[in-house]
Design brief:
Immunoglobulin-like, five-stranded antiparallel β-sheet, about 70% strand
Length: about 80
């Protein structure tokens, strides 16, 4: 789950994976440019807050990747 969306200052990610594993979380602009990447080690549940207040208004893509699955979220920055 990703909230709030649209966002002004922060986005919150709540995620539960099927297995405990390394999780890669990346935020990309609409052109595919990497804004940030984070690796969460040996986890099954992720609760993270990411600041987006410094980003320009627009659409961004948050990708969550594990060895077993991949999820993509559309993020709207007001």
């Amino acid at each position: 789950m990703l909230y709030p969306n649209p966002a002004n200052t922060d986005i919150n990610l709540l995620l539960e994976t099927s297995k405990e594993t390394d999780i890669f979380i990346g935020l990309y602009n609409i052109k595919g440019g990497l804004i940030f990447m984070e690796k969460v080690k040996n986890s099954q549940v992720v609760m993270k807050r990411y600041p987006v207040g410094n980003l320009s208004p627009g659409i961004y893509i948050l990708k969550v990747v594990t060895p077993y699955e991949q999820q993509t979220f559309k993020v709207v920055k007001k």
